[in-house]
Amino acid sequence: MELLILGGTVFLGRALVETALQRGHHLTLFNRGRSNPGLFPQVEHLTGDRDGGLEALRGRQWDAVIDTCGYVPRLVQQSSLLLSSAVGHYTFISTISVYANFSQPGMDEGSPLATLDDDRIEEVTGETYGPLKVLCEQVAEQEMPGRVLVVRPGLIVGPHDPSDRFTYWPQRVKHGGEVLAPGRPARGYRSLVRTAAGPMKTPPSSRAGS
Q1: Does pLDDT of 209 surpass 50?
Q2: Interacting residues of 11 by C-beta distance below 8 A, sequence separation 6+
């Protein structure tokens, strides 16, 4: 498969590239060339910027694109519009944070989504991250109706995670002793472990959430 990845050199995108190469796909990476620029020398690299610098993508064709770094609806709309005639399928990595109310039991993909009071907002904060991703999902589907897979993962963890938001805990527990942790001690939890590229196995006609 001829596969285009928007991003591809930091965390999730890096894992997707590694998995795709293992499966024999032909890859093109589009990014600004700032993060780990020497990574994956065996694949094609296109340098540009999602905000007004998409020229390197024009006139090309791929079977599919995976968008790992879409946070602002205006920019996702620009890339999905340009790629609507260049790819057959668009996978958009969204987030579980798109949902409006996490206190409701039994949530599923039909649960109410978060909204913004002003949809012109583009600053990504803890409060706007989820609602902005909702709008990104919508504009991608608008530009490529029926050809968009939206993946709504929860906490993504693994090698090269720059946030340290999860890896701190297993590292701390490894050292032993008493550990100060949030939540109630008796509260159960479930951990889902799979490869970062696992959600990409979902058929293009489906919508996947975690």
Answers
A1: no
A2: 156, 158, 160, 161, 162
pTM given for the model: 0.85
Provide the pLDDT for residue 104. Answer: 85
Distance (Å) of CA 66 to CA 8, 133, 184: 9, 15, 38
For the structural domain made of 2-157+193-209, what CATH number should be given?
Answer: 3.40.50.720
Structural domain boundaries in the chain: 2-157+193-209
- Identify which of 3, 8, 12 has the alpha carbon closest to the alpha carbon of residue 197: 12
Residue 151 near residue 208 (C-beta atoms within 8 A): yes
Question: Rounded to an integer, what is the distance from CA 200 to the centroid of its chain?
Answer: 11
